[in-house]
Design a protein that fits this description.
There is one protein chain. The relative contact order is 0.14. About 40% of the residues lie in helices and about 15% in strands. The chain has a seven-stranded mixed β-sheet with strand order 3-2-1-4-5-7-6, with helices on both faces. It is α/β, with parallel strands linked by helices. Helix 1 packs antiparallel against helix 4, helix 5 runs parallel beside helix 6 and helix 6 packs across helix 7. It has a single domain, classed as Rossmann fold.
Amino acid sequence: MEKQQLKEIRDDIVSRGKRGPKFKKLARGKEGAKYEDPDNLEESGSITLEDCEVLYALVKGEDPKVIFEIGTWFGVSAAIMRKAAPGAQIYTCDFHNVCILEDDTINRMKMPSNFALKKLQKRGVKIDFVFADGQVLDGDARRLVKMGVKTFITHDYEKGKKGERNIHTMGKVFKGKFFTTKTTIAGIFK
């Protein structure tokens, strides 16, 4: 997929998300709400265009059958993963869930990851690929390994940010190699 196509997808979702009533309600009354300006697409809390490119390439290369996303926000990464793996089953979870996607093939769960994973595990769902743009809990890591995860990618991999904590948490139970890119995505492969 061309960079321009990824940019159009990202910008459309971010623009609609920042103008949406769910986001406005969530942002109302927050001190220093840096994401409020609907015309500032870079300050959105969403993944960058560079991250979209890396995520698209990783998903395309891995060709997962089942994807689980922690931290959906507006839905940019879910839409990018859908484009990269059109036949995959995608589950996303976020307790804020300001997701504005109009894609019925993406299963959105408005709950924290530990509840979503427990629910999916009870249904016998096996997960190939995880993209975490939210905090991974210790119990999540153990459950993901039991559910067959082969690839784990996390966002915001910078010192002290959730991505660094996610790699540490997953590294306790998910043995494999680490990699980082020039952007803020990092991952573990089993």
